[in-house]
Amino acid sequence: CVLCGRADDCPEKYGEKRTYVEYNLTVHYYCLLMSSGIWQRGEEDEGVDGFLITDIRKEVNRAAKLKCNICRKKGASIGCVAPKCKRSYHFPCGLQRECIFQFLEDFRSYCWEHRPVQEFTDKEPRGPSQCTICLDLVEHLPVYTVLKSPCCKNAWFHRECLQYQALSAGIFFFRCTVCNNKEKFQKEMLRMGIHIPERDASWELEENAYQDLLHCYQHCDVRRCLCKKGRDYNEPDSKWEIKRCQYCGSRGTHLACSSMKSWEQNWECMECRSIFAKSGKYSKRKERALATSEKTNGTTCLLEEPPPKSPRQSSGSPRSFLLQSPKIMCQNLSPCSHLELPPSNRVTMSLSPVMSNRNWSLSLRHKHLRDKRREVRNILKELKAQVKAKTTRLNINAENIWSSALKGFRQRIFSPTNTIEVNFSNCRSRLKTDTSAASKHHFFQLLMLHLENSSIFAGSSGKNLSLDFQAVKENLYFEAGKMIAVSLVHGGPSPGFFSKTLFSCLVYGPENVKPVLEDVADIDVAQTITKIKYANNLSSLQSTVQDCCEFLAAAGCLRPVTALCDKNMLVNDILTYHVIKRITLPLESFRQGLKTLGVLEKMQMHPDAFSSILCHKPERLSAETICDLFTIHSSSDVNKVEGADFWLGYLQDVESGESVVTLEDILLFVTGSSYVPSIGFDPEPTIKFLHIRYPIGNRLLNCLELPITKTYQQFKNTMELTIRNTLRVERE
């Protein structure tokens, strides 16, 4: 470290040790924060977290003239702020001598003589008590290593325990372990030199930390289980389906084991039943539940033949979920028995009423992604408010998409806040049905596809940045980040190919990310890491290290291996070098590009939301997606109701492959885009039913005008004829 002169890498004590090869600079983060003669004069992305490189050099020169009052060596950059005190020291020396460093406001430092102390009254209980973090004994003494809670009289802590707790919990979850007070507790701990980082808790950042909560309880707990296949056997829609307690959900029974004839019957476990029995409420609840059940079903039905109205059964009509969509604004829109139904309606759709744990978890994950993408849509719409009506035209050659896009983005008149119009220069005259929006959608789609397969990214599905010296020289990483930001805000598709490691580096900073073996795209490097990781004895480990010593030396990871456990640190060093340190310059350049239109800032404010579009491919279009996308404008006129019913049925036929067109074709016909942009459509797609012969896709208004026909077959024929021919002519 240029400030303290130590090579120790201990983030808990000295903060992250950061090395900047381009500046020939290594520094401990806390040494930098606490230095007395330097301030953050730059933005967060300038220099070292806002500390300009020139200022750091000046501070090193200033400290070189000051001698440390503890180790007697030069370079003491920290001084006590007490009036008339002239003591100076290095940060590690200050910790060793029990100085106090306050990580707030102007980052003050106090020497061992002038440091703040906690007040101890005569009424304080004498004798040791338990530290509520490590549960070891702590003496009630006014010493540096002991801290007491300002909000609880009997809460005492080891200073070291509190510091580790603060680093783990972060500013949002660090609080008194006894009374949960946050404001008063944090204020006192900051005064006494506890560093509370401004980040989320470590357990919130851990991937799949709460995965166990998604498991659904499936076990028969009755005293005598009748199922021959065991208590864990669960067969949906049979007497061997497991029903969970309606109150606690942590006990279960096979329907047959509790003589239950229908899934709709409620069941309570013995524990919950005894609780309600003691309170005198059990009999009342049971009577009310039975009465409700009788009103709902009318008659008791056998389990093997559930009633048609059972909520756990598919409704026979595969369009039932569509007909219940809130986006359909009809006064009397409902399925009618006398209407002619499409062929797909004549066979009951095989939707499994009860999903397995795996399918249920997958469904929950998809729902979570949809919710997050909806959140991103609103955020991107806020960013789009920056876009002005003034237009910038890009002349694009589809056969050389990258060069023409790069030329357009680098032209002097280009501004990301201007409305973008795209003209494909190598195409023949456009049709009247085409719009600039359609060309723009197609351009961004081709551009994202090119970026995904370009040399600046490496990997299979989840990609990281690669090291391309030519791309660094031409500043292509910056341009790539800029293009992705512009695509998101201007209605293009999201990349969807970022690895979680790359996303975390962008959002949390590379110093806070630990890469994994899957992040290594180079096969030779991956094999080397694998050999080291799975070496089962010391001799094979040393042999592997000897074989690749040149590579390890070049990576700065070569170290003597004296024990088998050394392989873990070696693997981490190689991963960190290859995935992160090696691409420091490209990563920083890419981050700068993503700052265009404020996208990176929003990513850092809403990481979970943006992860859903940057690290996950968009959902495949489905009939339900298209139905929710379009708002149907209709009235109580019966013909229009039939038309809406035909439209919903047609979507099902297209999804099931009983049509010559696809759902993407329908979307392209109406909006000019075969995908749903991350920001959504503007204006939102609508449907109108008119007395016309053929459907019309108005791409300026994103409006689909549909004909009112007497039969479903007529409706389907006109739809397929028009959409297929229109798109075929456009492609030709």
Provide keyphrases for this structure:
globular; Hect, E3 ligase catalytic fold; 732 residues; metal-binding; Herpes Virus-1; two-stranded antiparallel sheet; ubl conjugation pathway; Znf_RING/FYVE/PHD; 27 helices; 21 strands; alpha/beta; 5-stranded mixed beta sheet
Descriptive report:
The protein is of the alpha/beta class. Among the domains are: 17-110, 2-Layer Sandwich (Herpes Virus-1), CATH 3.30.40; 128-204, no CATH class; 623-731, Hect, E3 ligase catalytic fold, CATH 3.30.2410. Helices cover 40% and strands 10% of the residues. The protein contains 27 helices and 21 strands. The chain has a five-stranded mixed β-sheet. Strands 1-2 form a two-stranded antiparallel sheet. Strand 11 (242-244) and strand 12 (252-254) form a beta hairpin. The longest helix is centred in the middle third of the chain and has 28 residues, at 357-384. The chain is globular, with a radius of gyration of 33 Å. The model is unreliable at 282-356, 428-434 and 635-640 (pLDDT under 50).
Mean pLDDT figure: 82
The CATH architecture classification of the domain at 623-731 is 2-Layer Sandwich
Determine the strand fraction and express it as a percent band: 5-15%
CATH class of the domain at 623-731: Alpha Beta
As laid out across the biggest beta sheet, the strand order is 13-18-19-21-20
Q: Which radius of gyration do the C-alpha atoms yield?
A: 33 Å
Low-confidence stretches: 282-356, 428-434, 635-640
